[in-house]
User: What shape does this take?
Amino acid sequence: MPTREERTLKLVKGTGGTATRRRAVVRRIPRVEEDPVELLGRLDEEPVLENPVVRRRPPWRSKSESGSSSAVRGRGSHRAPIVACVVLAATLAAAILGGYRWYGDRALDQAHEAALAAARQTAVNFVSVSASSVDRDLQRIVAGATGEFKDEFVRGQAQVRSAIVENKVESTGTVLRAGLVSGDRRSAVVLVAVDATVKNVKAPEGRPSHYRIQVDVTRDGDAWLVSRLQFVG
Assistant: This one.
């Protein structure tokens, strides 16, 4: 607390030489202990806090403005869950897309494997026939065929059967290699290399034969059937 200076008022004589008796009054006058200019200068020299803990509302800013600022901050706080939901949705979409691509690639690989297996088996069936089991052998070829190839083979089946029986054909084939030329999940083109040993009336001891066969296969439900077969060398 600033100290106060005490002063006493003296008696004052009245007019006509008579003295007027007055009561002495003590008045306290405030004394300034610090120069205002020095105080302001010292305040200007004090460092300003970059991130003050408490911010006072400027006198020119109304309460309504302060409320609107709080509302903006409120909207910002509500924005965080929305952003999180968007990020989560994007992550889920990427996971679903990645899973779909993985499933598509896996399904395509399985289709190619099935097409290769069907082409290999058909090539073996086509060069593995015997006069002693001709009907069963030919029926096995028909069962694995479809489309134009099936129609053509069925039309010439009687002639093929007669040739096998008359020449006492005994042929046994083995697949050496098979490669996919092209294909998707519904169809494929496969090249098959086959070695066979063929016996007939002209070669009773048998002679080796080598075939290169192009096999076109088509998916029919869960089965892969031959739609075209031709020797290419």
User: Anything to note?
Assistant: Helices lie at 36-45, 63-127, 134-143, 147-166.
